[in-house]
Design a protein that fits this description.
The protein is of the alpha+beta class. Helix content is 37%, strand content 22%.
Length: 123
């Protein structure tokens, strides 16, 4: 794994560029920027400054091998569906965009998560 040579602010800016290039993606979150669809997060920038993408198994295996990266680990837990995007790839937005689209399309195939029902006034 490479050492990070770009700052969190630069990563946030690159992540924003990436999200802006996808026609249906919307950036959410203040301290932890992320994208989600139907209640499923498909990308995020972790507190450790790692950009993570949720990929289907076949694409995940290829991505891990091609970019010599690893699965995301947060709070000591390995998130097996998420890969860490190397900084070198984050800096090549056009190349990364195809994986971002794969991530979006993958999540779009998943069953939507139920949303919590909001309480009516007076309940």
């Amino acid at each position: 794994m490479e050492d990070s040579t770009i700052t969190r602010e630069e990563k946030v800016a690159l992540y924003n560029q990436l999200v802006a290039l996808h026609p249906n993606a919307v950036m959410k979150g203040d301290t932890i920027p992320y994208t989600s669809l139907n209640g499923h997060m498909y990308s995020f920038l972790s507190k450790q400054d790692d950009l993570a993408l949720k990929l289907p198994v076949d694409e995940r295996v290829k991505f891990l091998e091609k970019y010599k990266t690893r699965l995301v680990e947060n709070y000591g837990i390995i998130q097996k569906e998420y890969v860490v995007v190397p900084d070198s790839l984050l800096q090549r937005i056009e190349e990364l965009l195809s994986y971002f689209a794969i991530s979006y399309n993958y999540v779009n195939t998943l069953k939507p998560k139920p949303t919590p029902k909001s309480k009516k006034k007076g309940e």
